[in-house]
Structure formats: C-alpha cells, structure tokens
Amino acid sequence: MKNSAPLAPALDSPLSILKGVGPARAQAFERQGIETIGELLFHVPRRVDSSGRACNLDEALACEGPETLILHGELSRKQFKRFGRRSTLRLTVTDGECELEVVYFNQPWQRERFERGEVYSFAGRLSASAKGPLMVAPKMAPGPNALEAGSWIPTYSLPKGVGQELVRSLLRLALDTLEAPLPDLLKAQELAALELPALSVAIEQLHFPQSLKEFQDARRRVLLQDLLMLQARVRLGAQVEPAPACALQIESSTPAQHAARLALPFVLTAGQQQILAQLVEDLAQPVPMRRLLQGDVGAGKTVLALLATSAVAASAGQCAFMAPTELLAEQHYESSRRLLEAAGLRCALLTGSQPNALRNLTSKGLAAGDIDIVFGTHALFSKSLRYKRLAFCVIDEQQRFGVAQRARLLEKGGAAHLLLMTATPIPRTLALTIYGNLEVSILREKPAGRGPIKTRWLRAKDGARLPQFLAERMDAGEQVYWVCPRIGAQEDGGAEAAFERLSNSDLAKHGTTLVHGQLKPEVRAERLDAFRRGEVQLLIATTVIEVGVDVPAATVMVIEEAERLGLAQLHQLRGRVGRGGKRSWCLLYGKPTARERFELLEQCDDGFVIAEEDLRRRGMGELAGLRQSGELGGMLTSLEDDLDLLLAARELLSTRPELGPQLLRPGP
Fold first, then answer.
1. Local structure of 420: helix, strand or coil
2. Domain count of the chain?
3. Last residue of a domain, which of 379, 413, 443?
4. Cβ–Cβ contacts within 10 Å for residue 516, how many?
5. For the segment 3-50, what is each residue's pLDDT rounded down to a tens digit?
6. What is this structure's pTM?
7. Does residue 410 sit in the same domain as residue 311?
8. Do 490 and 541 reside in the same domain of the chain?
9. What whole-number distance in Å separates Cα of residue 155 and Cα of residue 209?
C-alpha cells in the first residue's frame, strides 16, 4: 500500500512519507545514512555554486574562461550514440542566428527530456573543442527563462540513482510542511555573539541561500550544532561509568592467532608487535576498548586489526570491519579472506549494492552467529541488521564517518570494543577534544622489504619520454597505475578519456583496464582482480583506488591534473606503489599553481609531516570525522574559521551544563 505524505511531518518521521520517495529511493537514501526528515534537513551540501550570468548565444560564443553562463534556445538537432556502456548525447541549440552544441556524456536518460522544436534553458561553462565552443553536462530546465540568474545552488553528496533536483524538491517539501520550526537551545544573545542565525533560519538558508555569505553562516550554525552534540557526548562519556565490555576470554596466543600470523607474507615489525600487544590487552579488559590507531600509508594497520579480530573470534565474539566506500570494503574482504580462513574463521561482505538475496543470506548468518567477521560499509549498522554477539568494531578511514554513524554501529553490540584507524594523523589535543577519553597508538615504521618511492613533478617536456619509461617498466614485468581525478570522457577529460587514449597507444599491448566508482561492483572487482593477478599491467582509474588496493608488482603511479588533489590525498595515492621490494615512482602531472605541494611531495615521504602541512594549509577538513553523520551534518573546513566554533561549543557546555541532556534527548 502506497504511503501518503502527512500534512505535518516531524523531524523523526521516515523519509518515505514524502511524496516521491518510494521503497527503492528510501533504500538509496539509507545507504547515504539518511532515513528521516531530520537527517535530510541536516544533510550539508558539499558546495554551493552561482547559477551564473544570463546572456544570449552570440555573447556566450564570445566568452572565454570558467564563468558560468545561463542561456536559452530552441533545440534544432538531437543525436544519441552508445559505445558499449558509454554514451554521448549531442544537442544543437539555436536562437535563429547562432548555434551552440550541448553534450551529455554517459547520461542516456537525458535524451528523454529533450524534444526538437522546444525551447530550453541551460546553465554551465563553455569548453573548447576542435569543432568550436560547447557546453558539457549543463543544468537544464524547459522554457526560455526557467533558470534564475544570480541565485545560489547547493550540490550534495548523493547515492547513485538520486539526483540533485530531487533532493532540492524534497527539501523544499519538508521545510514547507514541517509540523513546527526547528527548536534552538541557544539564546539569542549567544547566537548574536557568534554572529550566527537561529537554527531554523540556518536550515532554510543552508539549502536555499540568497547569497554566498548566507550559506557560509548557515553552514557554521549547523556545524556548531554538530559540535555541541559532540561535546555533549564527550562530557557524558566522561561522567558515566563505562558499561562492562563484552565478556571475552581473550588470550595472548591462540591457535587462530598463530595460524593467522603464519599466513602473513612478512614478519611483524617491533612497532606492530607492541601495538598488537596493546590491542589484545585492551580487548581482555572489563571496560570497552576505545583506541585510535594512526599510521602512515602502508604501515600495516589493517594487519593488526585482522590479528585482533582473530583473537576476538577465537573467544566466540563477532567482529564488524567498516570502511567508507564499497571499493575499500571489497578490497579489505578479498585481501583478508586468505588470512582469516587460514585461521579457521568465517568471513563475509555486506554492502548496500549487493543483491537482496545475498544481503539476506549474510544477515541471517550474522544473526545466527555463523559469521565471525563481516566487512562492509554503512550497511553494517542498518536498522534491520542483527548480530548474535558483536564484540569488536573496526572502523577504517574513520575520519570519513560521522559521530552518529560510529555510534550506530557500536549500538549493534552493546558494550562492544572499538578500534578507529586512520592514515591522517590527528594531534592528540584535538583527538581528546573530539573523542574524549580515547587512547591513541601511533605506528611509525613500515614493514621491511618495501622499495623506495621517487616522486617527480612532470613538466610538459617530460610527456614525450613518459611512454618509453612506462613501456620499459612493464617489459620488466612491473605494473602501472594511471589516475585521473574525474571519470570524464572525450572532450570532458578524465579517466575514460585517458583509457581510450592509452588503449589506442603502444602501451595497450601490455593490457589495459579501467576502474571508477560508477561501475557495477562485480565489474569493478573483476577488473581489479585481473590487475592484481598481472593479467593486465596498466590500470586507469579515478581516486577510488587511493586506499585498500595492494599490488606489490605496481611500481609506477601517474597522476593527471594533480593540482586538483590535496597533499594528503596525493600521499595516499602514492602509497599504492612501493609495496614490493623494487624502486617505485610517483609522477605528477599538474599546473604550476600547485608547485608548493608538488615540491613538498618530491622532498618528503613522511605522512605525518604531510598531514600536518595539509592541516595548516586547508584547515581541519574532515580530520575530525565531522562529516554529514546521518544525525546532524557539518564539517570543519578551516582551522582559522572553524576552530573558534569547536572552542565555543566547549565553552557553552561548560557554562550551561543543562544543554547536554537536552541535546542528547531522543526525538526532535
């Protein structure tokens, strides 16, 4: 029976009560951690863009540069072509005197939106091509003046199958029909001192801003709410006696642990052995472990987590290993299966994109206790999932998860132990402010036998020599990553364009394959396995491979448009090579605007130094893990601009302790 939207939904009402959200869309939103009206309203946009300047076609064709333009015209020609999984839709728009070509790549559904002879409005930037200027993948609306010039349009991180326009329409419907304004626990004078709007005003301006300043102020108010919740949890954790941990008879050495160690292709370093001993000791304590494990790319954090899970599973406890992306979860599962099965443990993979039959089978196995260790993404804390005895949670790349998401996973196991892992160092004082009484372990040394990595910034003159260098490396049996920040095809640039170009070059004889986030998981896994087995030697990919892909024979990493990526991300990508004993190279193609970043990477390979520099340059970013959390949204984006909010939240909770219980009270 179809749900009808009530006249006045509440913050805790399920998203499915909104018109336009059926079961399939509700499931897609759930994969993003959005299940209620409140979670949708607090879903912070990734960015906000100006809709652009209105002009006619003649003016548009004369424009140069990255300016966003709004124009309209009659559709005189429509051409659609499909190339396997890829497609191109080319539209010719005219005003009777001038013509402009509009192109959509890999969006076959767009062709149903256009009819010849009709007038449409477009907003986008012009790109150069051999045939003249064209507009690639612009926003579109039917009618001559359907797009408003000078307005501000938010863009959201969304699951596949959910469009930006749908989210904006759902937000408008939710705000217009909400049963009551959002309550604000802060006093008017407190908000005035921080120069911030009331929460109800901020939510409106966050999603429908009239100016860039409105959006920025609204984002800071929502971030403050997130930080207040965070501080309330930290204070509550400090005041309340921790619940007894899951009763586990953890031993320092068990047959499962011994078998797992024997299955390792290397001997643990002294630092790894010391931290493993800390983990086993923590797991045997009567209070739940709360530990953050920091270690540079390739330092061996995952191996320690797996050995700890083998100790827990040997004591009949279940373990959940959560990663921020399906690709990383898949890689952890595939690379860990051999080690875990050698220890006699049963493991499984659970992600949102798996067929329902497979997900149901895994769910039944977890509920019955037939699975010892499950790897997955947000699906690991879905409401319907039950564990028989969840005792240990490992969260990799923990800074990509929100506070509430971590809490929802822990709730599946009551007093479960928790290990957070990150390759992005967090200063201890900041970690204590964010997480409270959290133990921090730092893994500095890398396993023996790793080859050195040479990083070079490539100028234009180096391009001619690169193919010969790559051919020599692949002739020697080595493998190459070629990374592009965008998927992109043809005129749009990106990984698909690079794949097409390299597949038609002399390098293609070594075998090429393409991997990006829009591929079906089974296709992506098959291509990565082929690369891992050495059946293809050249992998063209987007940044989806920045974590979790371990191929010792890969010795070269080429990164196009490297100026688009931050220091920490470039260092993460660099960590995909140098995992065998041979010398490796990381080659950066990028504009001189990023000269300082490239030169630092050429001179330094210490991830802790690079992370601190990234912190100084870009601010706290997502270091604190304050992403859209599914409960409250927001993220720290500037050390100078947002650290004051972290301190303000701490001060408010100190002077008004009664805020804590009110903030943590269930319901809207």
1. strand
2. 3
3. 443
4. 21
5. 444 456 788 888 888 888 888 888 888 877 788 898 899 988 888 887
6. 0.60
7. yes
8. yes
9. 12
What is the C-alpha to C-alpha distance for residues 510 and 517, in angstroms, rounded to an integer? 24
CB atoms within 10 A of CB 534: 14
Q: Same domain for 560 and 583?
A: yes
Residue 235 lies in a domain: no
Is residue 31 within 8 A of residue 160, CB to CB? The reply is: no
Is there a domain that residue 363 lies in? Answer: yes
SS3 label, residue 3: coil
**Do residues 342 and 264 make contact, with C-beta atoms less than 8 angstroms apart?**
no
Instruction: Provide the residue range defining the domain that includes 471.
Output: 453-605
* Contact (CB, 8 A) for 57 and 71: yes
* Mean pLDDT over each residue of the chain, to the nearest integer: 82
Residues 385 and 277 in one domain: yes
Which of 605, 621, 640 lies at the terminal end of a domain, its last residue?
605
Q: What is the pLDDT of residues 228-284, one digit of tens each?
A: 887 787 777 555 555 666 666 666 566 666 666 666 666 788 888 899 889 988 888
Q: Are residues 344 and 464 in the same domain?
A: no
Tokens of 616: 């100084």
Task: CATH number of the domain at 71, please.
Answer: 2.40.50.140
In the chain, how long is the greatest CA-to-CA distance?
81
Cα-to-chain-centroid distance, residue 494: 19
Blockwise average pLDDT, block size 10, the chain, 668 residues = 53 87 86 85 85 82 77 92 86 91 88 90 82 84 78 80 84 86 88 92 91 90 86 67 61 62 71 89 86 83 88 87 86 83 88 88 94 92 89 83 74 84 66 65 77 87 86 94 82 79 92 88 86 93 80 92 86 87 91 88 83 61 37 38 74 87 69
Q: Determine the number of helices (DSSP H) and then strands (DSSP E) in the chain.
A: 22, 23
Intra-chain end-to-end CA distance of the chain, in Å: 27
In a shared domain, residues 310 and 415: yes
- In this structure, are 488 and 549 located in the same domain? yes
User: What does the block give as tokens for 429?
Assistant: 């004082």
Nearest to 587 by CA among 504, 668, 501, 469: 469
CATH number of domain containing 461:
3.40.50.300
Q: Kindly give the pairing relationship between strand 417-422 and strand 390-395.
A: parallel
Q: How far is CA 633 from the centre of its chain?
A: 14
Asked whether residue 175 is domain-assigned, the answer is: no
Residues 300 and 405 in one domain: yes
Note the pLDDT tens digit of each residue in 575-633: 889 888 889 999 999 888 888 889 999 998 887 777 667 666 654 444 333 333 333 33
Q: Is residue 164 part of a domain?
A: no
Secondary structure of 242-304 in HEC code, one letter for each residue: CCCCCCCCCCCCCHHHHHHHHCCCCCCCHHHHHHHHHHHHHHCCCCCCEEEEEECCCCCHHHH
